[in-house]
Description:
It is a single chain. The protein is α/β, with parallel strands linked by helices. The protein has one domain (3-128). 26% of the residues lie in helices and 20% in strands. It has helices spanning 3-26, 63-72; strands at 39-41, 50-55, 80-85, 98-102, 106-109, 127-128. A 6-stranded mixed β-sheet has the order 1-2-3-4-5-6, with helices on one face. The protein is globular, with a radius of gyration of 15 Å.
Amino acid sequence: MDRHDEDGEQMRVWELLYSRLKDRLSRFGTEDWLGRADYWIVSDNWGTLQHKVYINNLDLLAPSTVKSLQDALADFPSWEIVAAVDLKDEGQSWPDMGLIIRAHEIIDELRREYFPMQYQALEYEGSRPRA
């Protein structure tokens, strides 16, 4: 496959997954790129095999929601979703954290000690910390 074909395939899959992510996440919340809603799916395609989602509502870290995102990747094992926690609480600074979601695994980089108690016990089947 030449570079032009690879670029075309990347664009095709990127658009398909973008649509899947919009469909799945809209079931759990609302989207706003300014952080005034539950999440934001970055709509820029930088040519990588990745989508980036900013999570503004910790409810979207529920295992069922994360599993739904993982299932969206089932046909594309080389792709991943970076789900970055992006909370904007006045007077509180949140460290960088999130999940890297792949079809076969979840890399868990959440810093639960910063979460309210009801979110500190979140666990994901097939997850592991970053090596």
